[in-house]
Write a structure and sequence with these properties.
The complex is a heterodimer. By secondary structure, chain A is α+β, with helices and mostly antiparallel strands. Chain A contains 6 helices and 10 strands, in the order E-E-H-H-H-E-H-E-E-E-E-E-E-H-H-E.
Chain lengths: 254, 125
């Protein structure tokens, strides 16, 4: 054995140590290093931990949320009441067929499969040509404008909408193919384009649309949007087959 | 033997309770530094088992590796090259290598111990 080295007993196994290097010192070194490592790991863990999402809404926003939830609750309650009425009618054993037929009629109305009439607003979209006009001919109204218009109409209380002769229902597609706008897969190219809207308060909708941002957006595309109120409007029914993709018929055990 | 484990626990507790946070954009540097530290620690344990451990080499290696790794990552960010991958690769390979060596040494020791035990038992009989 060399003179510089001596045997020393560690805890379990004999370990060769060099002179001037005690087990204690070695352990302390390891302790310091592991402590630093632990600190770094802990800090890293805390830093990469996801920040908890806090509710930062103020009273106004909370009240609005509460109101909208209450409204929704009321709607649901009304729905329940209606369904219960249906049920009791059916249970009383009156004319089941008639009840079913009326329920189906109601559903058809809500899906937009029936003609509807009522007071409303007619919006006319027509091209404007001024001296500064450049760009190609305007063939149809761009779909994004129509989508924006529909959103704005719905915000302002529209109940039923038809663009040209096409009724807008919940599954209506407004898209563009070869520079031509299609609604419900039908070409919508005529000008002026008439958008007929049935609403409970035509006056209000009329003024809302006259000061709407979509009117401004239409003007950027060299299109003008004119609105007028009508006391009686008839909207066509949705005439294309309904495409139901995410619903399935459940057969009840008989 | 238990002192280093205690040190690790103390370090973790300290890190958890001091509310010390690293900004998001620097957390990659810290992670690479953690990797470097882990590599050095495992290397130190290996050296200890192979009886070639030296305090000064270990300590300087620990800190310079950390700084170098973080510096490399920093340089990589500024050069637009993912240099930290080089550090990750190097440290990862070494980590596995060292752990494999440690396992072998411990296994050898254990087998030898068992052999000696058996021999003494045989002698007694």
């Amino acid at each position: 054995m060399k003179s510089r080295e001596k045997w020393c007993w560690s805890h379990t196994t004999p370990i060769l140590l060099k002179a001037g290097d005690s087990v204690k010192g070695r352990i302390y070194t390891f302790t310091i290093v592991t402590a630093v490592l632990g600190f770094m790991v802990a800090v890293q863990f805390q830093s990469t931990k996801e920040v908890e999402v806090r509710d930062t809404r103020n009273i106004m926003e909370l009240q609005q949320a509460l109101t909208s939830e209450k409204e929704r609750q009321q709607e649901l309650n009304e729905e329940i009441k209606k369904q219960l009425e249906h049920l009791s009618q059916l249970q009383q054993g009156g004319d089941v067929e008639e009840v079913m037929a009326s329920a189906m009629e109601e559903l058809k109305y809500r899906a937009g499969l029936t003609e509807v009439s009522g007071p409303g607003v007619i919006l006319e979209i027509s091209p404007v040509f001024d001296e500064n006009f450049d760009g190609g001919p305007i063939r149809s109204v761009p779909p994004y404008l129509l989508r924006m218009l529909i959103n704005e109409l719905n915000i302002n209380g529209a109940s039923e909408i038809a663009i040209a002769s096409q009724r807008v229902v919940s599954t209506s597609a407004i898209r563009e193919a070869n520079g031509v706008t299609l609604i419900n897969s039908s070409r919508v190219t005529q000008f002026p384009l008439k958008v007929r809207v049935i609403t409970d308060d035509p006056e209000r909708l009329h003024y809302a649309m006259m000061s709407s941002s979509s009117r401004e957006m239409f003007s950027y595309e060299n299109l003008s949007l004119e609105s007028s109120t009508v006391t009686e409007l008839v909207l066509p029914a949705y005439d294309k087959p309904m495409r139901v993709r995410h619903m399935e018929l459940i057969k009840e055990d008989s | 033997m238990w002192l280093p484990v205690m040190g690790l626990l103390i370090g973790i507790l300290l890190g958890l309770f001091t509310e010390f946070r690293v900004p998001d954009q620097y957390s990659s540097y810290l992670s690479i530094a953690v990797l470097a530290a882990l590599d050095t620690l495992i290397g130190g344990i290996r050296a200890h088992l192979e009886n070639v451990f030296e305090d000064k080499v270990f300590l300087t290696g620990f800190f310079t590796n950390i700084l170098l790794a973080a510096g490399l990552a920093f340089l990589g960010v500024h050069l637009g090259v993912d240099l930290y991958l080089a550090a990750v690769f190097a440290f990862g390979v070494r980590l596995f290598h060292n752990i494999a060596l440690i396992r072998r040494i411990l296994l050898d020791k254990w087998l030898e111990k068992r052999k000696i035990k058996k021999e003494t038992q045989d002698e007694e009989i």
